[in-house]
Design goal:
homodimer, 230 residues, mainly alpha, three-stranded antiparallel sheet, elongated, DNA-binding
Chain lengths: 230, 230
DNA sequence: GGTGCTATGGTTAGGAA
DNA sequence: ATTCCTAACCATAGCAC
């Protein structure tokens, strides 16, 4: 008969912690590192299991950025920012049972309608700009813009106007950006593939500074993982 | 003595699954839903524990978008897109040892400069619009816009112009949006808290279709969670 | 900042509502 | 598509490198 001698416990094992700001700096760093990669792993699993597009961005308090994305962060962000469905729905070749899949032809139709709307949008922008100029004169606030003038009642009217202005701007930007992307594909500047339908131009400035593989499962996940200094 | 009768097992309990595309549609949907909220919860915990800024975006294969962010998705995306350090760097009260922290005064100075630049940006937009109108007349393509006219050489010049136009639009939008946000805080429409310095107004066009609280811990986390149809 | 080691605590697959 | 339930599975807190 073998005597089972209970070895002295080398660790306390996991202990329950309260979800509140960790005060110990070193502890915080370790936890950050572990949980961050935990989330990235979960994100990768989600995308594989469910065919979802996932993007995760994490800023540490030290100001570093870490991100994970499937198929990659930029694509997911671009889809989100442009309000356009992810590339998969435009893919007619992938004959899966996605009920929301939009045939390319239909998408083109929608796109043409959007373009038709563009002219009116641009006109509206000019209108609002005209209003701005009017207000500046009427308000007589010299160097400042009308929305900087606190004497103007900003409670309802002006805020809505600014919102309106912003919406117009954004609509125009979105549609022009969409067209620009098509043009680029036509020009061969971009390859058609699973690329963002609407490039988010304001993001072109990033410089990736390091790139690591995704260790856990030997890189079976499609997503990329990289961090770069700020 | 109480006789402990083993009740018949109502479930098999959790079973190990392989990380590969789930074929059963219903199964996939359930897993997607559960794991998605699991990730959001993890993200919330990470931000609370480690003071990190986290943003998560998930597209389902059905084309729906779900996102979580602390302090909110827009802020994280804006920081990522602009390459600017996260909002915590603007927080003078939190006297932590963040080397990237920017004093509030300095930020205000930068902001004023940005506003000053606004007028010029707007002028540039008008200029480009003028050019557009010119091109339309010169090109003689009637109903279509100049960028739709394939007879126009889009290889270099026009693409750059459109890019320029987009940059201008985006700059203006961002700055007006920033001002709008301040105005809202002043009006009490928003509470100051840890809110986005630059609200991404171009995302207002999305229609939130459902909003759920963040169940687990009774909504102690600052982040928001919402999904909307595409 | 990252790793390897364990004993837990927590997440979640499966089933049903 | 979320919610409840249970029994596994698995992530991870606390240490030491």
């Amino acid at each position: 008969m073998v005597i089972l001698r209970k070895l002295p416990k080398r660790t306390q094992g996991r202990k329950r912690i309260e979800i509140k700001k960790l005060e110990n700096l070193n502890n915080k760093q370790v936890t950050f590192s572990k949980r961050r990669s935990g989330i990235f792993k979960k994100a990768a699993e989600l995308s594989v299991l469910c065919g979802a597009e996932v993007g995760v961005i994490v800023f540490s308090t030290a100001g570093k950025v870490f991100c994970y994305g499937h198929p990659n962060v930029e694509t997911v962000l671009d889809c989100y920012c442009s309000g356009v469905a992810p590339p998969a729905v435009f893919d007619d070749t992938a004959g899966d049972q996605n009920p929301n899949r939009v045939p390319m032809a239909e998408f083109n139709k929608e796109y043409m309608e959007a373009i038709k709307e563009l002219e009116e949008q641009k006109r509206r922008v000019v209108e609002v700009k005209e209003e701005v100029r009017m207000k500046k004169v009427v308000g007589g606030c010299g160097e400042r813009f009308w929305w900087e003038d606190e004497s103007v009642d900003l409670d309802v009217l002006d805020v809505q106007e600014v919102e309106h202005y912003l919406m117009s701007l954004e609509d125009v930007r979105k549609k022009v950006a969409a067209r620009l992307h098509e043009v680029r594909i036509l020009n061969g500047t971009l390859t058609p593939g699973a690329l963002p339908p609407v490039p988010a131009v304001h993001r072109l400035c990033h410089m990736p500074m390091m790139t690591t593989g995704f260790g856990a499962q030997g890189g079976q996940f499609g997503g990329g993982y990289h961090g770069f200094g700020v």
